[in-house]
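Reader question, answered in our methods column.
A reader sent in the components of a multi-part assembly and asked whether the whole thing could be modeled at once rather than chain by chain. We filled in our standard form and ran it. Here is what they sent:
COMPLEX SIZE: two components
ENTRIES:
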Amino acid sequence: MPVESLFPRLEKLLPQISKPIQYVGGELNSQVKDWDAADVRWCLMYPDAYEVGLPNQGVMILYEVLNEQPGVLCERAYSVWPDLAKLMREDGVPAFSIDGHRPVKAFDVLGISFSTELGYTNMLEALDLAQIPLYAKDRDETHPIVLAGGHAAFNPEPIASFIDAAVLGDGEQAVLEMTEILRRAKRDGLSREETLLELAKTGGVYVPRFYDVTYLDDGRIQRVAPNHPDVPWRVSKRTVMDLDEWPYPKQPLVPLAETVHERMSVEIFRGCTRGCRFCQAGMITRPVRERSITGIGEMVEAGLKATGYEEVGLLSLSSADHSEIADIAKGLADRYEGTQTSLSLPSTRVDAFNIDLAQELSRNGRRSGLTFAPEGGSERLRKVINKMVTKEDLVGTVTAAYGAGWRQVKLYFMCGLPTETDDDVLEIAEMAREVIRAGRQATGTRDVKCTVSIGGFVPKPHTPFQWVGQADPATIDRRLHLLKDAIRSDKSTAKAIGFRYHDGKPGQIEGLLSRGDRRVGAVLEEVWRQGGIFDGWSEHFSYDRWMTAAATVGIDVAWYTTRDRDELEVLPWDHLDSGLDKEWLWSDWQEALSEQDLDDCRWIPCFDCGVCPQMGTEIQVGPTGIKLLPLSVVTPVV
Amino acid sequence: MSKQPPGAPPPPPVQRIRLRYTKRGRLRFTSHRDIARVFERALRRAQVPMAFSAGFSPHPKVSWVGAAATGVSSEAEYVEIALAERCDPEAVRRALDASLPDGIDLVDAVEAEPGTSLPDRVQASSWRIELAQVAFADLENAVRLFLAEEAIEVERMTKNGRRVFDTRSAVVSMTATVGDDCAILSMVVQHVTPAVRPDDVLTGLRSVSDLATPVPPAATRLAQGPLTAEGEVADPLAPDRVAAGLTGALAGATRQVDEAVGVQPLASSEGKD
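And here is the structure of the entire assembly that came back:
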C-alpha cells in the first residue's frame, strides 16, 4: 500500500492556525527515511504539545536508536492543538507524523511515552484523530500496535483497554528486541493476537488482554492472573546497564519552533538511590548507573557541534550526586572557556551542591537560576519522606549562593505529604524568612529574593507511599492559604519571598489516574468525550469535567485517592515488576511513619530493596579518576 | 558584588556584515522569533567569530530589519551581524548558509558601510500574492476598484489592540496577472506605521469588491529597500557595495540571487516529503 505525504493537505490548514511551524517537521538532525525500504515502522508520540514534547529525551533517544537500524523507520508525532484538530476533522485529514507527514495509522507501532498520567486524554484524542479504533479489542491487522512507555507505564491499568501493550523501564534495548519480533511476525504473517502473544511471552512486554482482573465485593481487587499459559505472571522492567554503550542522542534534534528546553542535554547517570519515599522516578529506575566522565565529555562535544546550542544540561534525577561531578563541571568549563557555553544542573540536591560547583557552572556564558528542593517544610516531615536535609544545610547553601552572586533562588516543596500537619507547612515560611535574612547579611544588600514553589503530593505506584490516603484538595488548599498568610505576615521579608502554587484539584485527578485500576478507564473516556484534552495545562484542565465524568460512570474518586490501603490489598500494578520487593516497600513505609530515615545504598551496605538480585543489575558508580583533557583548538571555518 | 561579571569585557565589533536571506517553502511558517533562534545557533555551528554584548547574559550582536509575518514567504529579508574578527563576507555567507535549514537561504552578503543604517534604507516592499481558485477577471476588477479609492480603512488586531488604519495610501502600485491555476497580485507597498501587511491589502480588496479567496493566499516578498522616484524597490545593499568597492561585483551578486529564485517555486506547495 503506497503511503502518501499528508503535507499538501495539511499545508492548506496551516495558515489558519497558531504556531504552524510546530507541525512542519524538518528540524536539524531529524530524518525522513524511505517508507518502502523499511520493513518495521515506528511512530513515537509524546502526548503533549510540540513545545513540551520535542525536548523529551526518551523520544529523542529511541528515535535515533531505531533510525540507525537498517530496515527500520521511525518518525515522531506530538499532540495537535484544538485549532488544528478542528480543521483536521472538518477536512478529514488524519493524524500525521511530523517527519514525513505520513498517516499515523499506517505505521506498525504507535509508541506513546507517558511522563505523566495527565497525558492520557491526549492519547485518546490522538487515536481518534489518527482514525485508529479507541479500544484495543476493536483493532485488526491493519492498525498499529499501540504501545505505552515512560514512567506512567508502571501502572497502565487505567489505559488498559486502549493500549495493546506497555513496556516498563529503559527503552533502548526493548525497542530493538520488539522490532525483531515484529519483523518476524510480519514475515510469517502472524495475526494481531499472535504477534501480541509473541511480545508478551518475552516477559518484558505487558499485554493487558492476556491478564484478567477479578474484584472483591467491596471493590478491591481479588486477583490479577494471566489467561494464557505462555504468558508470565509478572512482567519485568527493562534496565540498560552500560550507559557508555548508549551515547544517545548523538545528534539531538534542534527545533525551529520555540520549546521549553533549548539545550544540549546529556544524561550523566540513570537511576537514584537517595530513597526519597515520594519519588516514583527514584524507585523505578534503580540501580544507579553512571555515564563515565569521558563518555560525558564526548557526548557534549559531539552534541554541541551537531546543534549549536549555547547551554549544556547535565541531566539525571540528582545531578550533583555523580561521583565525579566536580571534575566533570571543571573539565567542561575549561574546555568551553570563552565560548559563551553555559552548563546547568537541572536537579541539584542541597547537600550535594557547593559553591565551587556553582562557579564552574556559570564560568562561561549565562548564569542559570538555582533551585533547591527541601520538599518538606519541617525536619520531622523530611524524615518521613527521607529527604535528609537540615534547615542549617539549606540556609548555609543558599546564603553561599547569594554570596557568590546569585540574587534569586527557588525553593521547591510539596504539600499534602503523609502525616503532614498545618505546622509542618507553616515551617516553610520560617525557612524562607531565614534564607532571606541570612542572604541579606551575607551580601550586605536587601537585593536578595527567593521563590517558594509548592506542588501537591500525589502518591505513586511502586513507592513506599503507594498505600497512603492522599490529602483531599480542601486540606491542601487550606494549608496553602495558611502558608501564604504566614509569608505575608512578616512585612520585613514578605516582598523578598515569591509564592507559587497550584490548588489541590489537579493533584487529585492525577492521583486517581496514578493509582487507578482498569475501571478508571471509563472516566478517562467520558472526560475525553466531553472535550477533555491537554489536562496537564491549567487552562485546559477542568476539575468539574473529571468529577462529573466519574459520577456518570459510577467511579468514587475519593475511594481511589484518599483511602488508606492495607498491607495485603492487591494493588492494580502488583503484576508489574519494578524490581522492588513489596515487603521492602511496606517496611520502608512503616519506617516513614516512625520517622526513620534511610541512607543511600551507594554509601552504605545493601538494604535489600530487591532490585539488583531480581533484575540481575548492580550499582555502577565511579570515581574513575580520569580528568577531561582540553580539546584541541579548532580552526574556525570562517 | 559588581553589576558586571568579572574578567575583561567582550571584544568590540570590528566589522559589520549585512546579509540577505530567504524564507521559502515550509520554512515560511517560522515566526520571526523562530528565525532569530535558528540563526543564532547556525552562527555557533558555523563558528562565526561574533561580537557579544557585555553583561551577565552575553548575546551575539545581531540586528534584524523588519521581518515577514509567519506564513509569508520572502526572497528578501535582511539581518546585520557584528563580528569580533574581520572576515570575508562571502566566506561568512557560505559557512552560515550551510548551517541554516533549507528554505532559509543566505543569498547575499556585504560589509556594511560604517555609520549607515540599514533600517533607514528599507522603505517599501515588492509583493507577489498567489490567489488560488480566483479568476483573473475578479482580481483585476478588485484592483481597479481599489486603485480608484482615496482611502480604504481596514481593521486588525495589533499588539496594542484593535486598530483601524488606511491600506490604500501605502500601496504605490498594484497589478493583476494570470498564473497557473491562480490569479497573481503584484504590488509595491510602503513601510508605514502601523504596518500594512499583504493580508491587510487583501482585506481592503475584499472590502471594495466581491473578491473571494477560497484558499489562503500565498504571499511572497520579492524585494524590500529604498523606494525610487519611479515607484520601484531598489537594492538596499547597493550603497554598501559601492563603499566596499564592489560595484563590479554587483551584477554577479544579483545573478546569484536570481538563480536562487529560479530553482525554487516562490510560494507553491512543497509537499514532497
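What stands out: DSSP finds seven helices and ten strands in chain B. Residues 153 and 193 of chain B are 14 Å apart (CA to CA).
Send us your own complexes using the same form.
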